[in-house]
Amino acid sequence: MRTKNAPKKQDNTDNGQKFVISKTDFSNQLAELAPKMSFTPGAKNALQTAAEGLMEDMFRSAGLVAAANGKIKVEMVHLEVIKKHFMNV
Where on the tree of life does the source sit, at the highest rank (predicted)? Predict the structure, then answer.
């Protein structure tokens, strides 16, 4: 039940436009950030696991869209880029 002063649910669609980042931009940003970050081995492993899980979910979703549309092919490049950069931190 909403009260009179309860905040309205925010619309995060950015006026219907989706945020898209290219593979090159993504890996370049990650490459810039990775050397600046320092992690304990446990934190590094936890972050890597979280990043892998997130990327796998994103690719799974994209794969379903690709299968439905039959137009795009999903590549696992992002996941490999994340693994490479976090292993070298």
Answer: Eukaryota
Count of domains for the chain = 1
Query: Sign of dihedral through CA atoms 32, 33, 34, 37?
Result: positive
Tens of pLDDT along the chain (89 residues) come to: 555 665 555 544 445 555 566 666 766 676 676 666 666 777 777 777 777 777 777 777 766 666 665 544 445 566 667 677 666 65
Tell whether 14 is covered by a domain.
no
Q: Answer whether 0.70 is exceeded by the pTM.
A: no
